[in-house]
Amino acid sequence: MARGASSSAAQNAGGGGFWGSKPKVAAPPPPPIPRFHSAAAVGSGPQIDATTVISLLCVLILLGGAYGASLRLLPKGSSKKTRVLFIWHLFDALIHFFFEGSFLYNCFFISYSLPTSFNVAARQHPHIRLLTPPDVYWLGSQNKLYGANYGTGPFSRLWQEYAKADRRWGGVDLGVVSLEVLTVFIGTPLALWICALLRGEERKGALKRWFWMIVLATAELYGGWMTFAPEWFTGSPNLDTSNWMFMWLYLVFFNGLWVVFPLWILYEGYSAMTSAMSHAEMVDLVKYLKKGE
C-alpha cells in the first residue's frame, strides 16, 4: 500500500500520471553567440583553411571568366589595351555583383537574435561587437544583429574570411553598406555598359567610352577612400595588420587593384581626350586658315 502510494506520488510529481499535469518541456538553449575574430589570437602566421582556398579560387574563376569572355566577345583585331580594359571592367562587374552583392544580402537578410543577457543600452558583451553608433539600429531592429558573421552559407563564410582582416565586413557598418549599395546597383551596370562599348570599333565612339570609364574609375577611387579613411583617422580599430596574409593579401593587394587600375584608366582617358581635343583644334585651325585664303 505504501509502495503503491509512493509510486502514484512519484507519477504525479513527475507529471506522468493519467490525471497528473502535462510534463513540462524544457526550453531550448539559446543559440551560441558568434565569436568575432581576434587579432591577438591570430598572431603573425597565415590562417589558411578550406574557406581561404575556396575564396581565392572564386576570385581566379571570375578573372578567368572575364578573360574567356574577352576572347569570345571582342573583335579579333582588338588591341591589347582594349582587351585589358574589357577584362578589367568585366571582372570588376562580376566581383561587384557576386561578392559585394552577397555582402549586401548578408547585411539585409542574415540576422542573429540577441540573447537576453545582452544589455543594449550598455552595448557591452565579451563576444558581441556593435558597428553602429549608440541608439542607432540597423533596419530599426534593437534585438537583432545582421551580417555575414551570423550566417552559415558559402557567401557568409566568404565574408567571414575577409572579416578576419577587416571586422566591418562581418557585420553592418553604415558607411560600408551605403557605399556598397551604390557599387552593386550603379557600378555593376556601368561596368557592363563599358564592356558593351568596348566591343565596338576602336575608332568610333572612343571619347564616349573613355568618358564612362573615367566616371567609373573616379567612383572606384572615391569609394576606396571613403572605405578606409575612417579607419586610418581612428587608428584602424577594425583592421588586423598583425597578420601578414590579412595585411598584404586581403587589404593591400585586393583593395590595391581598385586603386592601380582606376588610376591607370584616368591617365589613359586624359591622354585620349586631350589628344582628341588637340586634333579637333587642329582641324578648326586648318578650316580657319582656308577661309582666310
From TrEMBL:
The keyword Transmembrane applies. GO terms for cellular component: endoplasmic reticulum; membrane. The keyword Transmembrane helix applies. Its main location: membrane. One of its GO terms (molecular function) is cholestenol delta-isomerase activity. Residues 1-21 are annotated as: Disordered. Keywords: Membrane, Transmembrane, Transmembrane helix. Residues 1-12 have a biased composition (Low complexity). The chain crosses the membrane at residues 53-74, 86-112, 176-198, 210-228, 248-267. It is found in: Membrane. Residues 81-266 form the EXPERA domain. Belongs to the EBP family. One of its GO terms (biological process) is sterol metabolic process. This is Emopamil-binding protein. The lineage of its organism: Eukaryota, Fungi, Dikarya, Ascomycota, Pezizomycotina. PANTHER family: EMOPAMIL-BINDING PROTEIN-LIKE, STEROL ISOMERASE. It holds the Pfam family EBP. It is a multi-pass membrane protein.
